[in-house]
Amino acid sequence: MKYIEPKWLIPEDKQQIEATGVDDNGVQVKIIIPKDNNNSDYNSLMTQYTIEQIDKNTAESVRIFREMQNRMSQRNLEEKGRQASEELFLAKLEAFEMDEVKNTTNKEFKRSIRKSKNKTEVLINTIVGIINERNKK
Question: Where are the domains of the chain?
Answer without folding.
Answer: 2-77, 84-136
